[in-house]
Backbone:
């Protein structure tokens, strides 16, 4: 592990490295920001840096005994607390408090990473507060959270808050191409779909790899729907009934119809995400004339999916509605609520 592994968080990295360089280490840090943007990785690297026997520059040496233990995840003075089930319980914080009384064995600091701190029960949070008020001099807490406003104000006020920003599309795209050797066209799509989260992008990549054919199958379905006046194409798509599959399908379709809409309005290739399928975009722009309305339909279905809708029913209704948009045949008077 090293600081260079952290992508797209220059401000947070600079703040933390400066603290190490100036030897001004706080007792408690709160890393907050969306999921999948590097909070946990940064917490681990920061902890490694604090206990690196050769650190002084703000970086890690990567070679000393302490670094080797950190990298292996078995440093005796760096402890991670994560939710048991859905919450971090009072017993975990009691154990932590007891452990904090023992001086570090190997490093300079005894460091507790509390990952997903918003999941502390109220009792656990109140218990943590006691030790946050008067921590032993060698103790450093690093809390990470996606929901800082769900923490007690009294905890927030005792932590130095470090913001982690959503990653840019470009940062995710670069990472996927350079570090993960993902095909550039695919990387671009993934980066657009990931909503600023690298972990989301990696998950999508996994899903795309296991179901490589999903986009092609979806596009084939659209082509057939557009060209045939039958539901046969739709029925071939029925097996996609798992939540994750439907989610991915809606994302893929969302990007596709976004491209169609942009093409219909601007005919500018450089604005398209699916640049490897220009021919098909041109064809579909004729088959699916109301791309903007289909986008609303997709948006609608995505919201319903988030609300734990009945997946098979959701998919069936969605595909039937989608089917009616082929060729731009839907009349304006058709009632399906606000678009
Ligand atoms: Zn070291």
Residues:
């Amino acid at each position: 592990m090293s600081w260079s592994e952290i992508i797209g968080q220059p401000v947070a990295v600079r703040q933390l490295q400066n603290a190490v360089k100036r030897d001004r280490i706080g007792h408690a840090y709160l890393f907050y920001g969306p999921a999948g943007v590097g909070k946990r990785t940064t917490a681990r690297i920061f902890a490694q840096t604090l206990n690196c026997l050769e650190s002084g520059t703000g970086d890690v040496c990567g070679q000393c005994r302490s670094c080797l233990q950190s990298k292996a995840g078995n440093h005796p003075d760096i402890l991670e607390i994560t939710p048991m089930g859905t919450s971090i319980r009072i017993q975990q914080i009691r154990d932590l408090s007891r452990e904090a009384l023992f001086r570090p064995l190997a490093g300079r600091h005894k460091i507790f990473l509390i990952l997903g701190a918003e999941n502390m029960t109220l009792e656990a949070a109140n218990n943590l507060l006691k030790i946050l008020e008067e921590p032993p001099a060698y103790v450093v807490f690093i809390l990470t959270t996606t929901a800082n406003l769900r923490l007690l104000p009294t905890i927030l006020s005792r932590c130095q808050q470090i913001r982690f920003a959503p990653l840019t599309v470009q940062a995710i795209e670069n990472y996927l191409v350079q570090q993960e050797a993902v095909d550039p066209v695919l990387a671009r799509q993934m980066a657009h779909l990931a909503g600023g989260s690298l972990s989301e992008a990696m998950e999508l990549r996994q899903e795309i790899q296991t179901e490589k054919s999903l986009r092609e199958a979806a596009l084939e379905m659209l082509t057939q729907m557009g060209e045939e006046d039958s539901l046969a194409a739709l029925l071939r798509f029925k097996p996609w009934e798992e939540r994750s599959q439907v989610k991915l399908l809606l994302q893929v379709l969302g990007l596709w119809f976004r491209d169609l809409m942009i093409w219909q309005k601007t005919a500018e290739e450089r604005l398209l995400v699916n640049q490897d399928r220009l021919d098909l975009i041109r064809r579909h722009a004729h088959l699916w004339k109301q791309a903007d309305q289909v986008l609303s339909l997709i948006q609608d279905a995505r919201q319903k999916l988030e609300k734990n809708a009945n997946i098979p029913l959701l998919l069936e209704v969605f595909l039937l509605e989608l089917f009616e948009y082929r060729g731009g045949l839907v009349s304006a008077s058709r009632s399906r609520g606000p678009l």
User: Anything to note?
Assistant: The mean pLDDT is 87. The chain has 15 helices and five strands. The two ends are 48 Å apart (CA to CA). The pocket of zinc ion is lined by residues 52-54, 60-61, 64, 66-67 (CB under 6 Å).
